[in-house]
Write a structure and sequence with these properties.
mainly alpha; Arc Repressor Mutant, subunit A; Tetracycline Repressor, domain 2; 2 domains; 10 helices; 0% strand; elongated; disordered N terminus; TetR_C; DNA-binding
């Protein structure tokens, strides 16, 4: 085992699976493993994800991977946490439609990416049968929706939306048609699809659907 892996393993001894200390070798090992896990998920799906294979492909000691993440579900949970933390922050344009278009474009471009789209398909499929993966996926979306909810709250304060509008439901309404197209159709996720999703959510919110 390399000195880097030895040091990372020693840093993590006694910690809970999936937890890491920031910075240094530990951070580099975590980044390498999560990147490799994401690649493997996109290529082969959750059912064929294997900790030993991830360790080999990431050039990290197998014992380090098992000690830190414990299970495939633990590794996927950490991957989703990292994805939520690394995702771009919200864009505020000064108008509800502008903000929702920015949100839709972020979601659309992510799902349209061959690697990221395949990765989300794999995780969503796994969440239907694995409780921990489902919990991790729910937490991922809670973080991302909460990041964008203030755009709706600010639109209410500007008078663009009725008082009492549920910001979380509006943000979910932007993403919903894009995920539906990803999972049920081979139609391209182009910019027009993102624009339609944003415009539909904005129109519904202005009509009081989410109040």
């Amino acid at each position: 085992m390399s000195p880097e892996v030895n040091d990372a393993a020693n840093d993590d001894a006694g910690g809970d699976p999936g937890t890491v200390r920031p910075g240094g070798r530990t951070a580099r090992v975590r980044a390498a493993v999560l990147r490799t896990a994401g690649d493997a998920l996109a290529e082969h799906g959750f059912a064929r994800l294997d900790l030993a294979d991830v360790a080999r492909r990431a050039d990290v000691g197998k014992s380090t991977v098992y000690r830190r993440w414990g299970t495939v579900a633990g590794l996927v949970a950490d991957l989703l946490t990292d994805m939520a933390e690394q995702s771009l922050p919200r864009t505020e344009t000064g108008s509800l439609l502008g903000d929702l278009r920015a949100n839709a474009e972020l979601v659309r471009s992510t799902l349209a990416d061959p690697r990221q789209g395949a990765l989300f398909k794999a995780v969503i499929a796994a969440a239907t049968t694995d409780a921990r993966t489902a919990e991790s996926l729910h937490r991922f979306y809670e973080i991302r929706v909460a990041e964008w909810a203030p755009c709706v709250e600010h639109a209410v304060l500007r008078g663009e939306l009725p008082k009492g509008t549920d910001p979380y439901e509006v943000i979910r309404a932007v993403s919903a048609p894009l995920y539906y197209r990803l999972l049920t159709s081979d139609a391209p996720l182009d910019e027009a699809a993102g624009a339609r999703a944003a415009e539909a959510a904005a129109a519904a919110a202005k009509a009081g659907v989410y109040a």
